[in-house]
Amino acid sequence: MLKKIVNNKIELIVIAITIFGGYLLKLDNWIFNIIGFLCLIYLFVLFSKNTKTIWLSLLYSIFLGGIRTITIFGRTPTIFYSDIIIFFFVIVWGMRCIKEKHIIFHKTEFDWLFLLFILLNFVSLTRTHNILKGLALLRLVNMGVLIFYSFIIFNRDRTKKELEKYMIYYLLFGFVVFMQLIMTPLLRHQTLQAFISDRSGVRLSWGGPANYLAMIFNLFIPMYIGTIFNGTFGYSFFSLLSIFGIFLTSSRSGILSLSFSVFAMVVKFSLFIKRKVWIILLIILLSGLAVFIKQNSYTSLVFKRFQKFNLTKIYTGTPRHVFLKATLKIMKSKPIMGIGWGNYRSFLKQNFPKNIELHDTAINIFLTEMANAGFLGLIALGLLLYIIFKIEFYLSFKQDYFNRHFEQFVFIGILAFFIHTLFEDFFINYHIVILFWTLIGMQYVKYFLSKKRIINEKKI
Question: Which of 351, 369, 370, 347 is nearest to 359 (CA)?
Fold first, then answer.
């Protein structure tokens, strides 16, 4: 694993300059800021010569979080370091379009559905009372389009080996997330017990609340275990770290998604490994883990949060069922186009008691799309998910160019991710949008290469 990484110096240089330059830009010192700006110029030069490194810089720019805040009409939005990298992508994309004398649009079903999804969401802005908030939310929701194209446009001509190498960098990202999380209490001079007890502190500066961190770990855990079928066993250790990370967050939705992953992986192993004794050993291992968690004074806090969860109470600390009622109320009055992006918080405030927790979305990707863009937006989202699952199903069961077994574990991770989104809306987390759509872009290129190989074989 490390040998493959060390042998690719250009990728390591891009990652190092991305992180180093971003860190200098965050410092309150004009000399360091100038050096950071020069690093950005050098990155742009690298991107213009080697477009395949853009996605890698974008992925690792996540760790730098926000760079500056600006004031626009009384509001102070944050400029993320990732925004700068995406701006570079747009310029490089434009330069390539001018050079090739046409707009890069492949006219596949994925392209058309993305375009439909964007248009329907922007049409919903005509109904918003707060155009700035609506635009801010749409920036997050539609950012997946740019991320997706930033990968497939510049990587459709990559080889199988290059994509497998890309996956290594992607998997290492999840490990770095865990290391950053576990270092947090050390930097704060907190004990582990105090760190877990103060759930609001279980977060990263760029990652958002604990539930979003659990969402990241759930995406990576099956992929780490799936690398066993690629002959790489070291990543299995990363899966244990990620599971521990989920329990650190004490996220109920994270643990429910993890339960699905474990069940799906047990089924997969039972079908692949003929000796059922391995399944028995796995059950024993999980049972022992459960006993440890139940008895341990630190992680028993997770179970206390489960015990507090009660849907029979009208308003709880996290009133997700209230969002369901609000969305149904919206759909009765404005079923086709919804209330428009940016109006959800004010709708809650006007129609529900003041003691509830206000949010800009319905904490569920489907309810959020229904409330803001109506049935048309929900249909567009459903079609996008259909295409994603179509790609994953093909890679997992209908091709032999890439390792099917590993692709099945990627599929499990994506399914667990979407189960988590039933309880937490990833659309409003800028960096998880980048992380997720980078993976989907990578999977699409695999799908494209696999299909292309079959076409070439038929011609021969």
Answer: 347
pTM of the complete model beyond 0.90: no
Task: Quickly tell me which residue has 């209230």 as its tokens.
Answer: 322
Tokens standing for residue 284: 């024993």
Contacts for 299 with CB less than 8 Å, ≥ 6 apart: 196, 247, 250, 292, 293
Count of C-beta atoms within a 10 Å radius of residue 434: 24
pLDDT per residue as tens digits for the range 239-275: 877 887 787 777 778 888 888 888 888 888 777 665 5
Please report, as a single letter, which amino acid is at residue 87. Answer: F
Rounding to the nearest 10 degrees, give the CA dihedral for residues 251, 257, 258, 264. 170
Count Cα atoms within 13 angstroms, Cβ side, for 298.
11
Angle at Cα 426 formed by Cα 423 and Cα 430, nearest 5°? 155
CA nearest neighbour of 165 among 320, 56, 45: 56
Q: What is the pLDDT of residues 286-336, one digit of tens each?
A: 654 554 455 444 455 555 555 554 444 434 454 667 788 888 888 888 888
Q: Which two tokens stand for residue 205?
A: 């500066």
Identify which of 258, 270, 286, 241 has the alpha carbon closest to the alpha carbon of residue 415: 258
Which pairs from 95-101 meet CB under 8 Å and 24+ separation? 95/48, 96/51, 96/153
Report long-range pairs for 106-112 (Cβ below 8 Å, ≥24 apart): 109/387, 110/387, 110/444
CA–CA dist 381, 144 (Å, integer):
12
Cβ contacts of 204-209, under 8 Å, gap ≥ 24: 204/65, 204/177, 204/180, 205/65, 205/66, 206/62, 206/63, 206/64, 206/65, 206/66, 206/80, 206/431, 207/177, 207/429, 207/431, 208/429, 208/431, 208/432
Whole-angstrom CA distances from 256 to 138, 196, 281 are: 29, 19, 22
Domain-by-domain residue ranges, the chain?
1-104
